[in-house]
Amino acid sequence: MTTQLNPISLPLAQNNVIEASAGTGKTYTMVTLYLRLLLQAGENNFPMPLDIEQILVVTFTRDATKELRQRINQRIQSWLKLLQQYQQHQDKQQIEDAELLALLPYLENNLDLAIQRLTFATQYIDKAAIFTIHSFCQRILRQYAFDSGLTFNFSVSEANQQQLRQINYQLWREQFYSLSATQAQIVTDIFQSPDTFFKANEALLSGEMPKITTALPFTDLQAGLSYYQQQLDEFTAIEQRYFAEFTQWFNQYRDNVQKRSNEKITAYCQSVTEDSDIKQRMQQAITLTEIKFYKGKEVQLPELVFKLEQFFEQFSYTAYVSGMNYLYLATLRERIFAYQDQHNEKYFDDLLRVLRDVLLKPQAEKLIRLIRQQYPFAMIDEFQDTDPVQLTIFEKIYLSPISDQQVTGFTVIGDPKQAIYRFRGADVFTYLSIMDHQQNNHIEHIYTLQHNYRSSVALIDSINQLFSQAQNPFYLTNIQFPLISAHRQGYLAIAQKRQKPWQILQLNEEIKYKESYQLAMAEAFACHIQQLLKAAEQQQALFIEDPESQQQVVAAKDIAVLVRSRDESQIIRNALAKKGITAVFLSEQSNVFETTTARDLALILQACFTPFSERAVLSALGSTLWGLNAAQIYQLKEDESQWAALIDRLLNYRHIWQTQGVLPMLYRLYQTEEIPQRLQQFELGERYLVDLLHLSELLQQAMNQQQNEEALLNWYQQQLSGVQGNEENRLRLEREQNVVKIITIHKSKGLEFPIVCLPFILTKKVAGKAEFYHNQQNQLMWDMLKEHTEQTRLENNAEDMRLLYVALTRAKYQLVVGVPAEPMFNEKSNLATLNPLDYLLLQGEKADFSAHNHYAELFDRALSPEHWQVTMTNKLPYNDNWRPNLANTPTLTVRQFSQDIEKNWLVTSFSALQAKLQELYTQHFADIGQDHFDQDLSSNWHNDSEVTITDTELSHYYPTGFSPFDFPKGAVVGSCLHSYLEKLDFTQPISIDSLTTICQALNLEETWLSPLQLWFTQILQQPLPELGCLNQISKRDKLTELQFYLKLGKLFNNQEFNSVLSQYHPLYDQHYPIRVDEIKGFIRGFIDAVVRRDNHYYIIDYKSNFLGEQLSCYQEENLRKVISAQRYDLQYLIYTLAVHRYLKLNDPEYQYETHFGGVFYLFLRGMAVPDTQQHTGIFFTKPATVLIEKLDQLWGE
After folding, report:
1. Tens of pLDDT along 861-885?
2. Which residues sit in the known binding site for Mg(2+)?
3. Phi, psi at residue 344, to the nearest 5°?
4. Is there a catalytic annotation at residue 233?
5. Which of 325, 389, 785, 964 is most deeply buried (CB count within 10 A of its CB)?
6. Residue 127's closest CA among 34, 52, 56, 38?
7. Which residues of this UniProt protein bind ATP (predicted)?
């Protein structure tokens, strides 16, 4: 039973479903209910007032969350102002908000309390519990970590496609690399490649796994390969025994067999004779079971046909392929989930699965009670886009009975007619299951919103007509179309003539090919839009609102073109461009790192980083951004003075990069080299410039997460080679002001536009894979035997119909719909093949295909005459040369900045300071916190002193060629080792599985796994002075990759700094004093680890430098030389001061002398064998208290 919703009387202390048709004020209603809960006002109240932290609101996108928070805040402030005015003047006529006026009788007795509650809500609106589904799950798992069984410090990120692919590659190698050539071909036939499989099934890597319709005859992939081989053997045996007899029979009765069957038999016989691919033969052999004879010429079939019938009854190649795909997918999902659990890393979609699993545990009742206490009331928006995992989460929290009788309220809001996100995992059948089992789900009532506030009365009446006259309009019987009312009397008028809400643009001649049809339709719509804007320029195209007769001139921004895909958007955009009409695609999903601009910028960055590399510089000069042709580059190269000047400029750019950051450097380069001016010369110059500025901003953001300039370059190259689908990386709009909008139907949901154009709504969609359907229990099933193709087609058609409904309900005043010259159906068509609009025009299941239908007749039967009109496209003025007038566009000017900027204030790092040490290095790019360069210093730091274990004895521990001294060297190696140690739980044994990530990243053979396991085990078991072994440090006593900003409150002074070091620092060398630019600001850095033991804090820095192939090279005496020469002593002093300040600020009892334990530099290659009592590879120190205090004073606080 459904009831029209009254937001003032809706019972709040029960479980409700609200179905809100398009444009019926769903968000407005949600805000009203929210304020009722805050004020405890209205009928059927919640038993207690709730504050903003107790009302849970869950939406499905960040944008929706942001909008809802803003709308709630605006309404709270509006009600607060109105109540304050009413309290002062006692005049109800001043209250213009109908809902507040209806609630006033409930508030009048204590207005002060109502005003106090609203005031409090405005002050703390940022704490409102309005979340996306993912952020809600993350919050619960973090907040109730003990009850959920998770650690506090798990990380959350977008799905890392590169990592997922690596897991896929690893599974592929494990399962298939050792196969024979024959079996490998079987795998190729089934999956093509790991990348092909991944792309086809990426959407199924999270969420609920489909169930299978038939039990598989094998349990794993290897068994599946063996099973298939058995079937091949059986098939081959049948052929060998009966084929000769069959050919004799066919030669004798060939003329009795119908032509089509004759051709199939001939093809099969030829493939057997030629010993063709067995899979091909098997597929051809199936046709032998369907031999058809000419009438009256039937003869007895040979034995081969009967044997093949028996064979194919128990074996289906299609089902086999589906089964193998199912097993591979299930195994891959297990590997992905295991990886996330092992690495304490969760993807956003994975959070839902984790919380669902936690809530399903028998001991989850305590957690459920805690969540209910924190959020007694919950509203879930867009619930038609839910899935089984999300439904289970909220069912367990709010719809399942628990021992206490705590009062809760649970309301879901959705519209099954707008469920269009199946491709993202949304499942309307999950929503429908709630309706089908309303009582079982403890849903007390279903309410509806049926008054449209968006569209004109005429447009709503026409949509009511179109859908209501069709029998079963949404294909699924449990999705109904309720009649909607409206009150907006507005319309579009052109040349003082009222336009009808449906404008049909019909091609005047039949076009068979899809591409030609789309081009013709795009050209027609571009012409129509041109004429509309032309009339608007002459003040002849107006939106008029009755009865006030308010008028508004039509503008380009009022027109939206809805499409299905990026390809369709480009077709209509090109057509509009030919008319001089600017349009933007609001659904752009492309990644900015995929553009030519991104690749060109990489060349420029490399030239700035290595200005003395001729190859790098020449590549940058020849890029589109720099824009020199071959002749100009040759001329520049031949002129020594010009070339020298260019190198000087590049050196200056690099200096700005190192001292101020990448964004200031790029802006200076763009200005000096006049790159924006050059780009404007291109037709797509605006697009290039927007992309260039976007990339520059992304580089600046990434710089804060990277250690130095080279690390930033490496990061940028990774983005180019392995593009991630992050929202920040999507192409930005060139402009957003008065332009025609092009947007996908999916993206348009929730939006409204005065005029909506649908040029390609009748374009036939290419049918996708029909492998999934829902059974009677609304469960997602994998149709392996293709026994439910009708159901899968029905569900696909239903999705298309919902997409049409969304498209038609976006318009306020007018729909412009493109149709072909003749309908795309005929007397041989059936309901399953119809386009959804044709389905409605033919009145759904009452369709009569026998009549020859024209679109004019179809619209005449479906809509009232006052609602539609047809314009034949050959009547459009295609040759009109009118273009939009851009002369009125205001000229923008840049304000001149006249203030002084403190140029020596900046954020620097140890690497930048180290690069300035003139006597030690001409250039050095190692960075604070991580030795990503894994330097080979063996020639400088060889040491002949003895150690307890001789070098030859390493062979007792490691296979020849696989010791830590043999481990690869280089920047990637250092980064990989740091990353592994950062995520490692020291208290757990080193597992082989965890080390596969290192071998994968470095392309090492699996022979390295055992030596790596021994090496890292020795590192964890090596006793460290004062601290003990690392394997005694738990996760809660360890912080990894700790980023800090150390404030330099005073100007950095070389003389004072060196004076302090010379007095109190034992490693200070007066021959190599610190000499850097005088700076002020912050030193930024990353500390590998800070650990706590017995209330003492220790800094740990991992060094993967190669110092030589002897353990003696890693003794303390030698390490001191390395520390001093590489100026790591300056690094650990900065570390120590940063940690000292942090602890002093956060722990009132902290004292450096008592609580700071010291600094460890662990040279990992030297920690290769059990403790030698020599502590090889371990450097330990604790800077003097007076030194740290002096530095603290010197640099200010």
Report:
1. 899 999 999 999 999 999 999 998 8
2. 978, 1088, 1101
3. 55, 35
4. no
5. 964
6. 52
7. 20-27
